[in-house]
Amino acid sequence: MLLQTVTPITVLGTTVLFALFLSVTAHLAARNVLGDVDPRRALYIGPLPAVTAIVGVTYALPEALIVFVALLLDAAMFAWSYDQPRRLVVGMTVIHAVITTLLAVVLFSVSLLFATMPG
User: Is the whole model's pTM more than 0.85, yes or no?
Assistant: First the structure.
């Protein structure tokens, strides 16, 4: 078994990639609710939930608390970035959570299939 050490570069890389993934799915959620929107606005949404997840896991906080805080920050960033009423912000946040979960499951499943491929 290959044991890897955790370095600041690996933590930073993981955080940046996770923030980018969350920003892409945030843009998909915003497009679903609002129609044609500027994709640069979604770049503001991903970093805070990503940092929340990384810090929460690092300090072994309860997963329910991490998810709750990340969803609150996600909603706050949607409200700030898109300046929409609360009802639309809640809709975008829920759709963002669903899209992120579904896409993450699909990507994980595909990577698992490739990892277990014979040959």
Answer: yes
